[in-house]
Amino acid sequence: MNGMQMKSGIQRSKKGSKNIFHLLFTLLEPLKLFLIAAIANGVILSAGAQDKNTNDTAQYLTIEQCIAYGLKNQPTVRQSTLGISITEKTNSINLSAWLPQVNFNATFTHYEQLPTSFSLNSLNPDGPLIKGHPGVINTLIPQLTASQTIFSPDVLYAANSAHLYVQQAQQINDSTKINIVSTVSKAFYDSLHTMDQIDVLREDTT
What we know:
Layout: H1 2-53, H2 63-73, H3 75-95, E1 101-110, E2 117-119, E3 130-132, E4 138-147, H4 153-205
Helix pairs in contact: 1-4, 2-4, 3-4
């Protein structure tokens, strides 16, 4: 019996504490809004006091100007735009295999010392051998070759898929720009909504 009374007393104390906390949060909610409004009002008043002492150089941007700034300075847009140029240059390199190919090579040989050879003296066969150094000190052998690709599966595939790679790069660029426009527009209107909330809090506190 005493145990059941203790349990019911504990449950009542827990319910009572919950009710007290709920009551405190309910009472503190207007105070929290008042503090937020007071802070916002103080910041605005402080900014207004500073504007009186200095020239007003603030600029207000429209949503079109914000979007244009984002499209111009966003690194992902620059990267996707650069990707189009890279794709076009890569296609040009792959298709250059259709053009005639001319190669030039040269081999240059220089001997510091020519080899030594001994030969019989035709005028005096019984005499001593004649010492000589046959050969050329410097030798240059040029080589020029030219070739033309008549048919190549790899080059044919590159020619048929070149426009597809360019189209893919352009679609990536367009998708990136769409995401930037969406993000900037959302941030712009979120900022306007926040400023309106601050104005409402200022009116409530004045």
